[in-house]
Design a protein that fits this description.
This protein has 460 residues and is mainly α. α10 packs antiparallel against α11. The chain has a domain of 152 residues. 71% of the residues lie in helices and 0% in strands.
């Protein structure tokens, strides 16, 4: 019997708890004979395995590329004494295995193909300055665009303003069972008829007076040449000689041609703006209910009912103001026409229409119309001029203290001081259009302050 005894399975046997043998030493089997060490991988065999894997990846039925990337190419076995493979950078997260189809390209485990991004540059002074500069350039471009399209914006605002003003008349016809399209046709036809009558009343007198002036120019020239004072001035300063040289040199013809071209451009622009204004007003008047519904739909549902009530109140106020202002102007025009016709003043109808149109402008419109009519009557007769001046002085007092308050008491609720200030600001910003829009805008702001701002401040 051999001296070596088999290893017992007793847990107290110290052979089971002996320390691990060092690498490279032969392990002993129970019968005492040393075990053969594990065979080391052969280099040719590894190369054959790599080539076989590469050929299989090129074949149609080979493993997919994703599986090859997941498994990776075979690596050489680590030999004793070799340093472990590099799995992380000196200051970065662990690296993934090399791609099978990339030239030694390492990917980080965080999913970034080129590593972790650096700190954002939001607080960099360069980025702050660049952002501020871009903001300034954008603001400047927007301001220039607004200045360029200023005339278009004014036309749109005035058209919407007129649509609000004509809407009460359309709704009145609708309440009498007239379809909205028919009501719009009737109201808009009345507006067009007014402009036609205004043109027929203004154009003939103006053209007649212009023709009379042209025919009377030669007589005026002869009278000037026969004037002894002018003869003395011509002897001293050669006035007539210089005027003749200026006419023959072509300077007068050039100035007259430039003036005619400028006047024609002004007339054409005014005609085009008037037609555009009428078309926009017609479109806005026809689609006003849908425009209101669309704008109110942009408001949150919790505030939509109150916003709609305030909006309807503002729109009704603007419509009442426009309708009341038109009524006051019609009254002024009719009364003026009756007075001028009784006194037999020339061009009574044209002058009355001038008074009606200028009376639409707040504060100064009635005064401008009165001065124009008084001057025309004064040229016809001194007595007529004085009578017209007294008439307009009395009528303006009646209009300011009796007619205007009774007509506007249900339309706009604005104090006289606010009316004057709003008209001054509007006239300064947009001229006559701004003066027309200033009072209803002031009334809308007063309504918002009274119904929204003041109650909110009271709850604080």
């Amino acid at each position: 019997m051999s001296d070596a005894s088999p290893v017992s399975d007793d847990p107290e046997n110290p052979a089971l708890h002996s320390p691990a043998e060092p690498a490279g030493t032969a392990r002993r089997i129970p019968d005492g004979r040393p075990e053969d060490p594990a065979p080391s991988p052969d280099v040719p065999e590894l190369l054959d395995e790599i080539l076989t894997t590469a050929r299989a990846s090129r074949q149609p039925g080979g493993p997919p590329r994703e599986a090859q990337r997941a498994s990776g190419p075979p690596r050489e076995a680590q030999r004793p004494g070799d340093s472990p493979p590099k799995t992380r950078d000196a200051d970065g997260p662990p690296l993934k295995a090399r791609d099978a189809d990339g030239p030694a390209r390492m990917r980080r485990e965080d999913g970034e193909p080129y590593g972790q991004p650096g700190k954002p540059l939001a607080r960099s002074p360069f980025m702050v300055g660049l952002t501020a500069g871009m903001g300034l350039l954008t603001a400047w471009a927007l301001s220039q665009a607004l200045v360029t399209v200023r005339s278009v914006i004014v036309l749109i605002v005035v058209a919407m303003f007129l649509a609000f003003g004509l809407n009460p008349a359309v709704e009145t016809l609708q309440r009498r069972r007239v379809p909205r399209r028919g009501a719009i046709s009737v109201v808009f036809g009345g507006v067009i008829l007014f402009f036609v009558l205004f043109g027929l009343a203004i154009v003939p007198p103006v053209s007649q007076e212009a023709a009379s002036f042209v025919s009377a120019v030669p007589g005026y020239v002869q009278e000037l040449l026969a004037n002894p004072t002018l003869k003395q001035l011509d002897t001293d300063y050669q006035i007539l000689t210089r005027i003749g040289d200026y006419i023959t040199s072509g300077g007068l013809a050039q100035a007259v041609a430039g003036g005619l071209v400028g006047a024609g451009a002004v007339v054409f622009n005014a005609f085009f703006s008037g037609v555009t204004l009428l078309v926009l007003t017609l479109y806005f008047l026809g689609s006003l209910p849908s425009i209101k519904d669309y704008l109110f739909a942009l408001v949150p549902n919790s505030r939509r009912a109150r916003t709609r009530a305030l909006g309807d109140e503002i729109i009704n106020g603007i419509g009442g103001y426009v309708a009341g202002n038109l009524l006051i102007s019609v009254i002024a025009g009719v009364v003026t026409w009756v007075f001028l016709a009784v006194l037999d003043v020339d061009y009574a109808l044209a002058l009355a229409l001038v008074v009606a149109v200028t009376d639409l402008v707040p504060l100064v419109g009635a005064t401008i119309g009165a001065v124009l009519v008084t001057v025309v009557a004064l040229l016809q007769s001194g007595t007529l001029g004085i009578a017209c001046g007294i008439f307009f002085l009395i009528y303006q007092q009646i209009e300011n203290y009796l007619v205007y308050p009774r007509v506007m008491k249900h339309s706009v609720d604005v104090t006289p001081a606010v009316t004057v200030i709003a008209a001054l600001f509007g006239g300064t910003l947009l001229g006559i259009v701004g003066a027309l829009l200033a009072i209803p805008v002031a009334a809308a702001l007063a309504l918002i302050i009274r119904e929204v701002v003041i109650p909110r401040q009271a709850r604080l």
